[in-house]
Specification:
This protein has 342 residues and is of the alpha/beta class. The chain is built from 12 helices and 13 strands. It has a 4-stranded mixed sheet, sandwiched between helices. It binds pyridoxal-5'-phosphate (PLP). Pyridoxal-5'-phosphate binds next to helix 2 and helix 3. The site of pyridoxal-5'-phosphate (PLP) has 14 residues, from helix 2 and helix 3.
């Protein structure tokens, strides 16, 4: 019942009809892709600034990942979609990276005109919105991750969110060996019509997830205070990541671009010596940029996303830590500004 209550709480909090808890964000993505109808031999479009998990979920469905470049918002460039769609495209997966939403209006418009379902990978931006809608509730399905590095955590865990009854039914059956939970039979004699797998969430994860969710707003507010102080003290001269007008971010990190390599090193060294470090950019860029994934992608895909690589190589992501105070962020902003002026 912990998992049931966690699903219920997520439905209420994010205003979505159905939630299916699963074992991880990666399995949530795979379950959601299967549920919207992705079949072996299909193509699924996602983006080049991402985490490898999205690509793995597509491959595990037997489909081919197609990667769009990102724009200065560091999310899917909606203008690329029309060039990447083929007759084999069976899903589009925009990924809301590091707290900021993708530009969902043009993506949803293009997808609905083309009759292609959208699965939002919202593993990194739980609680953020686009307009008045929570991310993960705009496409036909959305997915959350609760691994140890995410906004809220259950150690490991994931969730599939959907307003579509059929998508939900498939996700429920597929994640649990095809069980239909037929009310006319005990579980041992339950009916089934599709082969599934075991991607179930445990009761222990469900119990932790409920408590974490109850703390979400408080945690996001703590992030916001630190982020606002940092931005204020850095002033207006930095070349910040652009944020879509309708995006309500969760202030998970602050990203800016610096073209000059020497200057970039000075910023990164300061972040290191002050105990902030960076968040994925640049410290884990290999795991977040498709240009490094020739082990998983066709070579033409790797070639196509050099544009994204060039952009990401100039980006620095400052993590927002609760263990650092609002005052720490104010001091940090001033020191970064000193470097900029020097
Ligand atoms: C973390 C993450 C995932 C995978 O989540 P896990 O729960 O670790 O399996 C998928 N996509 C993105 C964008 C992520 O950041």
């Amino acid at each position: 019942y912990h998992v049931r209550e966690f699903e219920q709480a997520v439905s209420e909090k994010f205003k979505v009809a159905h939630c299916q808890a699963v074992s991880s964000g990666t399995s949530a993505t795979k379950v959601a892709l299967k549920a919207v109808g992705v079949k072996p031999g299909d193509e699924v479009i996602t983006q080049a600034f991402n985490f490898i998990a999205t690509i793995e979920a597509i491959l595990d469905c037997g489909a081919t990942p197609i990667v769009a470049n990102v724009d200065k918002s560091l999310n899917m460039d909606p203008l690329e979609l029309k060039n990447l769609v083929t007759t084999k495209t069976s899903a589009i997966v925009p990924v809301h990276m590091l707290g900021v939403s993708a530009e969902m209006d043009p993506i949803m418009k293009f997808a609905s005109e083309s009759g292609i379902p959208v699965v939002e990978d919202n593993c990194e931006s739980v609680g953020a919105k686009y307009g008045d809608k929570f991310l993960g509730t705009i496409g036909q399905a959305g997915v959350f991750s609760f691994d140890h590095g995410k906004i809220i955590t259950a150690g490991e865990g994931g969730m599939v969110l959907t307003n579509d009854e059929k998508t939900f039914r498939y996700a429920t059956e597929y994640h649990d060996h095809g069980h239909e939970n037929n009310p006319d039979f005990p579980r041992g004699l339950d009916t089934c019509s599709i082969p599934g797998f075991n991607y179930r969430m445990t009761e222990m994860q469900g119990a932790v997830g409920k408590v974490q969710l109850s703390k979400l707003d408080k945690m996001l507010e703590a992030n916001r205070e630190r982020y606002v102080e940092l931005v204020d003290s850095m002033g207006e001269e930095f070349d910040f990541r652009s944020i879509p007008e309708k995006s309500k971010t969760i202030h998970d990190c602050l990203i800016f671009f610096e073209q000059d390599e020497g200057q970039r090193k000075r910023y990164i060294n300061l972040l290191g010596s002050e105990g902030f470090g960076t968040k994925n950019l640049p410290d884990a860029i290999n795991w977040h940029c498709a240009a490094f994934w020739s082990h998983a992608l066709h070579s033409d895909q790797v070639e196509h996303v050099q544009l994204t690589k060039n952009l990401l190589c100039t980006a620095i992501a400052i993590p927002i830590w609760k263990r650092k105070s609002v005052e720490d962020y104010k001091q940090l902003g001033r020191k970064l500004l000193d470097i900029r002026k020097s």
